[in-house]
Amino acid sequence: MNIHESLKKAIPDAMRAKDKVLLRTLRSLISAMTNEVVAKKHKPDEFLSDTEALVVLKRAASQRKDSIEQFEKANRPELATPEKEELVIIESHLPNMMPREEIETLAKEKMSELGISSKAETGKFIGVLMKEFKGKADGNDVKAVVDSLLQ
């Protein structure tokens, strides 16, 4: 069973458990995934592949992080709290990301392999690393590591 399907099947369990936060989050994710299916010109009752579903999950997590940041800047903790609760649930469905130390080790190896030494090649280097990691590493972490290596 893929991610999209398992999330859809978790909705009745959340209803039975009367877990409002989980139910709200699952419905939001399923809605986003259905929108993605329709955007790809498929029938709404089809499921996304795991790769496509992970893209939607990452986007949802990013949106929650942005919302939390904005609500905290505006001193609105009552609005940030539900977003934080949803973010925890979304992140539980995402694969674990590589730690920075591991990214740095692999980046150093790739850097010597490709002969990259100037800051002008930063964008190209980040692109190569992101293809290599394919969703196993956070893009912000990769950028921070590359920036520190190419100072």
Structure description:
With 151 residues, this protein is mainly alpha-helical. The chain has 2 domains: 3-93, Orthogonal Bundle (Hypothetical Protein Yqey, Chain: A, domain1); 100-149, Arc Repressor Mutant, subunit A, CATH 1.10.10. Helices cover 75% and strands 0% of the residues. It has helices spanning 3-17, 20-39, 50-73, 77-93, 100-114, 122-133, 139-149. Helix 1 (3-17) packs antiparallel against helix 2. The chain starts with a helix and ends with a helix. The mean pLDDT is 90.
Structure described in brief:
This protein has 7 helices and no strands.
| Topology order in helix (H) and strand (E) letters | HHHHHHH
Q: Helical element count?
A: 7
CATH class descriptor name of the largest domain = Mainly Alpha
Rg for CA atoms: 19 Å
CATH fold type of the largest domain: Hypothetical Protein Yqey, Chain: A, domain1
Ranges with pLDDT <50 over ≥5 residues? none
Helix-residue proportion = over 70%
The CATH homologous superfamily of the largest domain is called Uncharacterised protein YqeY/AIM41, N-terminal domain
| Proper CATH architecture of the largest domain | Orthogonal Bundle
Strand content: under 5%
Please summarize the sheet with the most strands.
none
Mean pLDDT across all residues, rounded? 90
Distance between the termini: 45 Å
Number of strands: 0
Structural class: mainly alpha
Instruction: Domain count, please report it.
Output: 2
Shape: globular
